[in-house]
Amino acid sequence: MQIDLIQEARRQAEICNACRYCEGYCSVFPALHRERAFADGDITQLANLCHNCRGCYYACQYTAPHEFDLNLPKALAEVRRDSWESYAWPQPVARRFHTYGGAIALSLVVGITLTFLALRFIGSRDGNGFYAVLSHNAMVAIFLPAFLFPLVSLAKSLRQYWRAVGGQTLRFRDISAALSMVAQMKDLAAGHGDGCNYEDEDRFSHARRFAHQAIMYGFLLCFAATSVGTVMHYVLDMPAPYAIWSVPKVFGLTGGVLLTVGCGWMAALKIRAERNLGDARAWGGDLGFIALLGFVAFSGLMLYALGSTAAMPVLLALHLGSVLSFFLITPYTKMAHGFYRLTALIREAQQK
After folding, report:
1. Which of 189, 196, 242, 254 is the most buried (most CB within 10 A)?
2. H/E segment holding residue 162
3. Are residues 60 and 126 both part of a single domain?
4. CA distance 248 to 240
5. Are residues 113 and 231 both part of a single domain?
6. In Å, what is the CA distance from 27 to each residue of 40, 81, 269?
7. DSSP character for 68?
8. What residues form the membrane-spanning segments (predicted)?
9. Which pLDDT value is given to residue 298?
10. Residue at which a domain ends, from 86, 115, 141
């Protein structure tokens, strides 16, 4: 990890600990005020608890031009991104996608190209619906490893993070408390419950909270659609294609709409927000990831709408290619933050 980022965040945390004006703002400040001194792991834990709502910055009397020059949201955002990159596995590619949106775009092009090649050279001799273009077995052979890779990578990364922050034996009540916080996006409501100042210094809003919820629940619904479809195919012997009112289609359509709307909303908020209150280096990578996730959802909806037309093979290649790209770079993009934040909230529940 970059020592200078840790040292600057520690300097600011020590000043905040002496002031204590923001004690009720979010999970960061109760955790911060429990400590008298901050080890590197403590700073990393605080950084991953932070949701970058920015309310503390606008309330602070020690921001520039004061000589203390506090900007805690920025300092923690930089440590947070560095922690994801430092713990990511495998390490050689870890510092590319968090920072450069162009790298994400390139991965999308590569994913789509590989999918087109798969359609061209593997294809399908029989099958219905999408399986008439690419066989079920070929899809499994391509996407099962791509799905398992980020799970293994994130598991290795989070294990290192857990050790660094002093994590203890997991208990159900701690996991339950953390999941409750995530489900409500409680820290994005801030301690006063009026929302955060992400868009505007003088206006509290729940917009960022709702956009995050749309993305999270949309993603979970899409995952549920795939899971239910897998059970129906392998357990109940009910292979695709499925009717429009079937469980996989209902989950998938609802999740796709939520994901598309949430990603568009989040991108608009990020473009309007002040870059200097976050990690400016990661701005392009964050926006590139939001665009990629939004494209995955939107291309899936287009495939639903035009799946019975002549455009279906091209749309299928675009959608599967974006999904392949998304899976392979998940451990190195903003997607990782959800797993780290949940882990940080579990650790916080242990410490309370």
Report:
1. 196
2. helix 136-164
3. no
4. 10
5. yes
6. 18, 19, 23
7. T
8. 100-123, 129-154, 214-236, 242-267, 287-306, 312-332
9. 96
10. 86
pLDDT at 214: 97
**CA pair distance 93, 91, nearest whole angstrom:** 6
List, for the chain, all residue ranges whose pLDDT scores fall below the cut of 70.
Answer: 1, 125, 127, 190-193, 200-202
Cβ partners under 8 Å of residue 42, min gap 6: 35, 165
Total domain count for the chain?
2
Q: How many CB atoms lie within 10 A of CB 37?
A: 9
**How far apart are the C-alpha atoms of 242 and 185, rounded to whole Å?**
34
CB 26 within 8 A of CB 187: yes
Is 165 in a helix, a strand, or coil? coil
Are residue 100 and residue 71 in the same domain, yes or no?
no
Tell me what pLDDT residue 125 has.
67
Give the pLDDT confidence score for residue 244 in this predicted structure: 85
Q: Structure tokens of 45?
A: 């834990």
Per-residue pLDDT at 193? 64
**Region label for 21, one of left (φ > 0), alpha (ψ between -120 and 50) or beta (otherwise):** alpha
- The answer to whether residues 270 and 312 belong to one domain is yes
Backbone angles phi, psi at 153, to 5 degrees: -60, -45
Taking the mean position of all CA atoms in its chain, how far away is CA 316? 24
Measured CA to CA, the distance from residue 123 to residue 137 in angstroms comes to 11
Q: Are residues 164 and 205 located together in one domain of the fold?
A: yes
* Same domain flag for 37 and 151: no
Length of the chain as a residue count: 352
235 plus 327 within the same structural domain = yes
Nearest CA among 31, 40, 52, 53 for reference residue 9: 40
Question: Mutual orientation of helices 336-351 and 40-49 as an angle, nearest 10°?
Answer: 110
The end-to-end CA distance of the chain, in Å, is: 27
